[in-house]
Amino acid sequence: MSRPRSYTRSAIVGGLLLLAGLFLLTHRPPAAPEPPASTNNPPPPRLDSPSTATSPLPPVEADLVSINSTAALSGKLTSLLTHPGVRAHEAILLFKDLDGFQRFLDRAAPAGVIITGRIDPLLALRVRIRAYDTFAAELVARAADFGGVSANPFIDIPPTPPSAERIASRPVAVVDQLLATLGVAVGTDTRTWGRGVTIAILDGGAAPDPTLGARLRYLDIGLGYAGTGEAGHHGTAVAALAAGSAPDAPGVAPAASVLSIRVIDTENKSDVFTVSQGIVAAVDADAQLINLSLGGRVTTELINRAITYATTHGVVIVAAAGNDGINRLAWPAADPRVISVGSTDATGRQATFSNSGPQLHLMAPGVGILTGGLNPQRALFSGTSASAPVIAGAIAVILSQTPGLTATQAVEILQTHADDGGAAGDDPHYGHGTLNLGWALARDDYTRTDTAISSHHYNPETGALEVVVQNRSARASAAQVLTVNLNARVTTYAIPAIAPGLSTAVVLTLDATTAAAPIELWTQLEPTQGVSDAVPANNTRASLFDLRR
């Protein structure tokens, strides 16, 4: 998740030159078609990261079962609803059934609250407290009606990721090569991609832009339509990445419909109630996909109900993992029913700002992507905010190109046809892998062969380097030979046949002398004689490791 930066055309040119300069300064001359780049996995994320440790997680729920004293509950509520991480003096009330919901509506005024919002399908109310003692007495007296009482925690646009100059792994920007980075061949006709699919963008309100055109429509849930300033920039950039059609800022599904629902206020903040309200509104408006390039640090039962409402209606929610560089996903991405998305750079390496965790589903480009902005301008956009709509757009593409699939089935296709990053197989840093839309679309082409060196991975538990080889074909690969050049020492390894979609790893044991200095690793997968590889560029990989950091 991040905020886009706007650019005029001259500024874009300057930015591209800066990125090129940084690339030349931070990369050695190529020893192979793919330039060497540091592929050190990020150090183990710290839960005491400054972004998470400076303030404790806010309390969220009030336990009505154990607190049966009006005075005790009033004190608990006062503390709960005045924490800096929540909307001050606001509560979310959940009800067990429609009768209890209606009874409270009839007596809200004498209960010491003002109703400021309602989500009828979720039996939820948003209230502002006028008198804590009176409200507490109501809760104690009518406890059987309530399914829960919570604060209304903030959900917002997280801070912008660090710039390229400050990121140790020296990421490579995507710029205007998004589709190529996703494995889509140059010249592919994408004009029908996403047709018939509606992607709801719950964000700062997308502004009208030529890259979205007449496919953009709005739904107002109380915050208006197109956003301005920072919120509008963010919402427009996210929408354009999912479904933009302009040649200078292509999105993934340029024929998809975009439903913009503004959930970010003028202070660039949202909250659990507003996001839940937006989810329900998107489902009721027949969106098949919901994108949330937003996140918070806690969850509530209301978010759980909203996600359940979407999933029971067959709607898939895609959410950004977060930009804190820690091993904990933001909410609602942390919910396993939500398709959580982390960020990679143009070479498929995990961005150091990208959150990790066992709930992570997929990775997608999220470093320096050129996309839509305001006025209309173009913006270089980075963060998991950028990666999430790329996945949402890809799901729309699969749905439009394979009629009859559900959105959940489309997600499964993307997950089983993703580039294996990091260690072989699923892992908390890459989830099921990095989006490879070209492979997913060619998944039934049994004449297509593509084996790849998927990653160079350092395993801190074993102290060894691993070369991961993946079969990205629809049929089993033939045996191949892997050539490894480690600090000018050349070794060859026999790679056995690999089943479709699976990976194998060659383990390179390091002695103390080798590990104590920079390591140059270059690998090449020899093509099987008589077999034409669909993507020969991914048969070579070069990396630099410095394990002393």
Q: Report the portion of residues in β strands.
A: 15-25%
Secondary structural class: alpha/beta
Evaluate the radius of gyration.
Answer: 25 Å
Shape: elongated
Biggest pleated sheet: 7 strands, parallel
Strand order across the largest sheet: 10-11-9-13-14-15-16
Number of strands: 25
Q: What is the second-level CATH architecture of the largest domain?
A: 3-Layer(aba) Sandwich
Question: What count of helical segments does DSSP give?
Answer: 13
The fold-level CATH name of the largest domain is Rossmann fold
Distance, first to last CA: 27 Å
Roughly how much helix do the residues carry, as a percent range? 10-25%
Number of domains: 3
Instruction: State the CATH superfamily name of the largest domain.
Output: Peptidase S8/S53 domain
User: What is the CATH C level class of the largest domain, in words?
Assistant: Alpha Beta
- Low-confidence residue ranges: 5-55, 164-168
Arithmetic mean of pLDDT = 88
Description:
With 549 residues, the protein is of the alpha/beta class. The chain folds into 3 domains: 59-152, Alpha-Beta Plaits (2-Layer Sandwich); 161-437, 3-Layer(aba) Sandwich (Rossmann fold); 444-545, Sandwich (Immunoglobulin-like). Helices cover 24% and strands 24% of the residues. It contains 13 helices and 25 strands. The protein has helices at residues 9-26, 50-53, 70-80, 98-107, 132-141, 178-181, 229-243, 272-284, 301-312, 384-401, 407-416, 437-441, 512-515, and strands at residues 5-7, 37-38, 61-62, 90-95, 113-119, 124-129, 146-150, 154-156, 198-203, 216-218, 257-262, 269-271, 289-292, 316-320, 339-344, 362-365, 369-372, 378-381, 451-459, 464-471, 480-486, 489-495, 503-509, 519-526, 540-545. Strands 10-11-9-13-14-15-16 form a 7-stranded parallel sheet, sandwiched between helices. Strands 2-25-24-21-22 form a 5-stranded mixed sheet, with no helix packed on it. A hairpin with a 4-residue loop joins strand 5 and strand 6. Helix 7 runs parallel beside helix 10 and helix 10 packs across helix 11 (407-416). The model is unreliable at 5-55 and 164-168 (pLDDT under 50).
